[in-house]
Specification:
- The chain has eleven helices and 16 strands.
- The chain has 525 residues and is α+β, with helices and mostly antiparallel strands.
- The protein has three domains: 78 residues; 221 residues, no CATH class; 192 residues, Histidine kinase-like ATPase, C-terminal domain (Heat Shock Protein 90).
- A hairpin with a 4-residue loop joins strand 6 and strand 7.
- The radius of gyration is 52 Å and the shape is rod-shaped.
- The model has no long low-confidence stretch (mean pLDDT 86).
- Bound molecules: adenosine-5'-diphosphate.
- The site of adenosine-5'-diphosphate has 22 residues, from helix 9 and helix 11.
Length: 525
């Protein structure tokens, strides 16, 4: 089967427009995920590096304390406790420090100058015993040059949490190296505040929110800014592993940014696709409209040729009969003359419609307005049609109200509109050959109505019949001749008179077409 041109166009549109654009949409969609993954990765790296540098800083601080302690131990000239005391006073987070030469020679010094109590020594000894294995390993590693302290929870009283850091202090030359166990008692809160948070503030340019969580106590012990959202990255604090550093972006998280971006992108793509779809639908509609118009024009040429040929043949036949003198009676002759006049009127009407239509289309049609009596125009036209109507067996009722005021109009154009309505009423009447013409006035308008009892017009077609070339698709209409121009001209003519044409019709019952002229708004000449 041959493909219809419309199907071909739809097919071409799909190939030429939809496929590339939807491929692009899909590509964008996939690409967007890749881009996002890249951004996400580099962002995570950034968070990692911030946490790393904080950890590194804590480590450095510890190393400085460690080496300070080492110096004190090596250079002390007798009063180790006093030296330790002096050192502690300068280090806020350090609550106490000890140096343990042996279980019986421990220097435990408290920062606030209090003397350590017996139970403190016992507690320390208990921890040393408990962590013996770890301590041994730690000392071994320290000898190899790698110091990693052991962190133990010392006490947890209310808000205050103290951690004990155990590490070895090496003395002597490499060959005869002696290791002494030393340690710091650290206040977690003070450490976080003075070391961890300070470093974070130094690095942060306001982009990040930072917190420190105590994993043992399962609560946040510090945050740079209050936030309800979850943190994006968390990392153990190397020095005090029961604490973890947590970080996220200020305000919305990257996940949310990505989500929002995805949503915006999707909405944008959807809008673009919808606009495109609408554009294509609009284009297809226009193409289909143009194609219908082209088909209607072809029908029009066929219809008009037919319309011209029929009256011409009739006129010729009647004229030849008369010429040959074959018509004997005067009455018959008169009938022939009337027939010729009627057919000529029809022809003129058709040609006028076509000429007017083409002039209107090319913007060349001119109208001449003057105050005229519509009743007179109706009477004159009806007189012209009288014989024709009678011949076709029509019952005609003309009802013209009195005192219809004159209105400004192009009488020729209005007559043409009226004649088109009369023609249609005749053409589309079947057995019930009754036409009513009514000219009347209501509060605002003067109305000229032409009613028939013909085939009627389906509701859904009633708007379209005023389009140029449009003819109702029923077989009844196809059997009648016509150009499809009549009503489009009527509508146009009423438009230039600031009026309108209204149709009321029921299939099988008949139609009433009313030309409505506004009284006050009628056009100035
Ligand atoms: P034409 O009459 O030459 O076909 P018109 O523009 O005058 O063109 O009318 C358009 C169509 O409207 C007609 O083809 C017909 O289908 C419908 N129509 C117009 N007047 C009537 C009427 N009085 N009764 C039924 N159908 C009508």
């Amino acid at each position: 089967m041959k493909k219809s041109p419309f199907k071909k166009i739809v097919f071409t549109v799909i190939i030429a427009l939809f496929i590339p654009i939807f491929s692009y949409t899909t590509f964008q969609f996939v690409q967007r995920n890749k881009d996002e993954e890249m951004i996400r990765k580099s962002y995570r790296r950034q968070l990692d590096s911030i946490l790393f540098s904080i950890n590194q800083h804590c480590w450095d601080v510890f190393r400085s304390w460690d080496s300070a302690l080492e110096t004190i131990v090596t250079t002390t000239n007798g009063d180790l406790s006093a030296d330790l005391q002096r050192f502690l006073r300068e280090q806020k987070p350090l609550i106490a420090s000890f140096v343990r030469y042996s279980p019986i020679r421990i220097y435990l010094v408290l920062q606030d100058g209090r003397i350590a109590r017996k139970k403190d020594y016992q507690k320390l000894e208990g921890i040393v015993t408990k962590e013996q294995n770890k301590i041994k390993k730690m000392i071994k590693r320290a000898r190899e040059g790698y110091v990693k302290p052991i962190a133990v929870t010392w006490s947890r009283e209310g808000e205050q949490s103290l951690s004990l850091l155990l590490f070895p202090v090496l003395q002597g030359t490499k060959a005869s190296r002696k290791s002494i166990l030393a340690g710091f008692l650290i206040d977690d809160d003070l450490f976080v505040e003075n070391v961890v948070a300070r470093k974070f503030t130094e690095i942060n340019d306001g982009t990040f929110v930072f917190a420190v969580r105590d994993k043992d106590a399962k609560n946040i012990i510090y945050f740079s800014e209050e936030t309800e959202d979850d943190f994006e990255k968390s990392e153990k604090l190397w020095l005090l592993p029961h604490l973890s550093l947590e970080i996220k972006m200020q305000g919305i998280t990257l996940g949310e940014i990505a989500k929002r971006r995805t949503l915006t992108n999707l909405v944008f793509l959807a809008v673009v696709d919808i606009v495109l779809l609408l554009g294509v639908l609009y284009m297809l509609r226009n193409i289909s409209h143009e194609m219908t118009l082209a088909r209607l024009k072809t029908d029009f040429v066929a219809n008009v040729s037919h319309e011209l040929r029929t009256p011409l043949a009739l006129i010729r036949m009647h004229a030849e009969t008369l010429e040959m003198g074959r018509v004997s009676s005067d009455e018959k002759k008169q009938n022939y003359y009337h027939a010729i006049v009627a057919e000529t009127t029809r022809l003129t009407q058709l040609i006028n419609n076509i000429l007017d239509f083409s002039q209107i289309e090319s913007d060349k049609k001119e109208y001449h307005f003057a105050k005229k009596d519509l009743s007179e125009l109706v009477r004159r036209t009806m007189a012209m049609y009288f014989f024709h109507l009678q011949q076709k067996g029509f019952q005609v009722n003309v009802n013209i109200d009195e005192h219809i005021p004159e209105i400004k109009m192009d009488a020729e154009a209005v007559q043409q509109a009226f004649m088109n309505l009369l023609d249609n009423a005749m053409k589309f009447s079947m057995d019930q050959k009754q036409i009513d013409v009514h000219l009347y006035q209501n509060s605002k308008n003067i109305i000229l109505a032409v009613s028939d009892r013909g085939i009627g017009i389906p509701q859904q077609e009633q708007r379209r019949i005023f389009e140029k070339f449009y003819r109702v698709g029923s077989s009844l209409v196809h059997n009648t001749k016509g150009s499809g121009l009549g009503l489009s001209l009527v509508k146009y003519i009423m438009g230039i008179h600031n009026g309108r044409v209204i149709v009321k019709s029921r299939v099988g019952e008949g139609s009433t077409f009313s030309l409505v002229f506004p009284v006050d708004k009628s056009r100035e000449a």
